[in-house]
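Researcher: I'd like a structural prediction for the single chain below. Treat it as a standalone chain; there are no partners to consider.
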Amino acid sequence: MTNDFAPLFRTAIGFDRLARLVDTLPQDAAGYPPYNIEKTGEDTYRVTLAVAGFSAEDIELTVKDNALLVSGKVAEEPGEKAEFLHRGIAARAFSRRFVLADHMVVEGAELVNGLLHVALRRVVPESAKPRRIAINTLTATKQLPQAA
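Model: Treating it as a single chain, here is the predicted structure.
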């Protein structure tokens, strides 16, 4: 399957990351663990993952190349081998990737009652905010030569 992105690049400047962004899109949107994405303010967001059975030490958060990677693996305690008659609580390892927009910053994370809350904020630097450009006008100081 080949896509022709040439029409998009006719008026776009600086979008060389587009191909990389397409490559990092999540492949399995209906996987484990379930999650919510909430907009909590004008520039603030929260990602909540249901990670029952995981402790803070079992979960790792990493931000790299405009992507938030949340992964978890329950460490088995040595000498504690239980025989399950029924195992309905999933405690399998997971990895969940979220693509972040430019200027998104992870402010922190907390684990409360089996829910991992990750706080995000959009911090746009002054150099990236819209600014008005003044237009200078020039006046002619020389006279055009007179025809003789």
